[in-house]
Amino acid sequence: MHKLAAEIIDAHGGLERWKRHDSLTAHLIQGGVLWPLKGQGGVLDDTSVAVSLREIHAGHAPFGTLATRSDYRPGRVALLDADGTEIAALDQPRDSFAGHMLETPWTPPQLAYFAGCAMWTYFNMPFLLAWEGVETEQLADWEEDGNHWRRLRVTLPPSIVSHSSVQTLYVTDEGLIARHDYDVEIAGGTPGAHYLTDYTEVDGIRLPTRRRIYPRQPDGQRVPEPLVVSIDIDHYVFG
Known about the structure:
Oligomer: single chain
Distance between the termini: 27 Å
């Protein structure tokens, strides 16, 4: 593991402490232009998410008024009612996004896929850096709004499904992630700049409670408007 990757993991609480847990749940309040743009405004404005820390698996509950909960895995996503009966499902869901651009609307199962994939990645980072096959490389430092951040390029193996296989972390002097860049492949490769702030500590693990995602220009600069996604997080609980 790259020295900076190890420093980042330690700053967030350490791999040994993280591995004591199997899952992480939290309450989300979400906003931004993405959801109505995709024809899914309001569905996940106020929900809870649960992600596995051992495998790629996540779910939201409630899933608006459409379902009691969603169940996301890379190969299949489903919407379920209270007794676990499937309301809708999609096999090999990533294939259904072929040809999609940022403005292309989503079906409810596609929303469940995107939200599950996104939150699984967000909640497992930076400890995902320790997964088998993940490669890291330190890039040149970055100056932004008076902040000096170190940068780590992360290349994920095919076995780890996320927004994109190549992502970049921007790290404070303390070792905390301040910004997380990626390209949303299922939305035409739309580039995002994702900011993490207002960290809290739960069971010795440092976790952000505020996330804001903006468009990213080719030179890496953030586009201040529109706000693509906002996520405010509380009630983190490890399982």
